[in-house]
Amino acid sequence: MKLPISKLRMPEIRNVARAVVLALFVSTSLEAQGLSPQCMQIFGVMAKLWDKPFHLYMVDSAGTDARLHGGKPTVSESVFIGGAYYVKVRGKWVKSPVDVLEMRKDADVKMKTTKATCTHLRDESVNGESAAVWKVHSETEDGDSDNQIWISKSRNLALRAETYLDVGGALGKSHMVSNYVYTNVQAPAGVK
């Protein structure tokens, strides 16, 4: 059953889309941006997400979410596959109205003005897989964010990301935890 977009909770879709854009805000022209070799490596890994199918599980504890959900964080799930983006909203899968090509264009535009610093913090395991943990501090016209990204040492893929973002004023600070799964990724059944 396809749920009409007008019946969806658009803030939920926008929150998930925002998280995905944060995760994918890389450009194919990284060298032109004057990024350090460390940042080029990290952003190159994140750029793979444009073309690699993945299942994303995310928890967002922003102050806005607390007000919207009775003090509870937003828990969301999405699938990015074959140039399409699917979001689970109130227990039902829908194809997102957010255009993936537009997301990529927006990410490319943001990348051109982003200043980033990348630092290797430590190595640790994520679900039994050896990973390098990187800190990425980004400054954009929309504000600053601090991220920690766990990158698989064997597959060179993002496994987990934590994003800390000051969304400003009464909205407070956002803390998003994203977990990426690359196995058995399929579009949700029956969703067009």
Major sheet description: 9 strands, antiparallel
Number of strands: 9
Average pLDDT over all residues: 76
Q: Return the structural class.
A: alpha+beta
Rg calc: 16 Å
| Secondary-structure element order, N to C | HHEHEEEHEEEEE
| Count of helical regions | 4
Percent of residues in β-strands: 35-45%
The termini sit apart by 9 Å
Low-pLDDT residue spans: 1-11, 25-32
The backbone outline, from C-alpha atoms, is globular
Task: Give the strand line-up of the largest sheet.
Answer: 4-3-2-1-9-8-7-6-5
- Helical proportion? 10-25%
Which descriptors apply to this entry?
single chain, 192 residues, disordered N terminus, globular, 4 helices
Q: What's the SSE blueprint?
A:
Blueprint: H1 10-24, H2 37-47, E1 54-60, H3 63-68, E2 74-81, E3 84-89, E4 92-95, H4 100-113, E5 115-126, E6 129-140, E7 143-152, E8 158-168, E9 172-181
Antiparallel strand pairs: 1-2, 1-9, 2-3, 3-4, 5-6, 6-7, 7-8, 8-9
Notes on the structure:
The protein is an alpha+beta fold and 192 residues long. The chain is 24% helix and 42% strand. The chain contains 4 helices and 9 strands; from the N terminus they run ααβαβββαβββββ. β7 (143-152) and β8 (158-168) form a beta hairpin. α1 crosses α4 (100-113). It starts with 9 loop residues before the first helix and ends in an 11-residue tail after the last strand. The model is unreliable at 1-11 and 25-32 (pLDDT under 50).
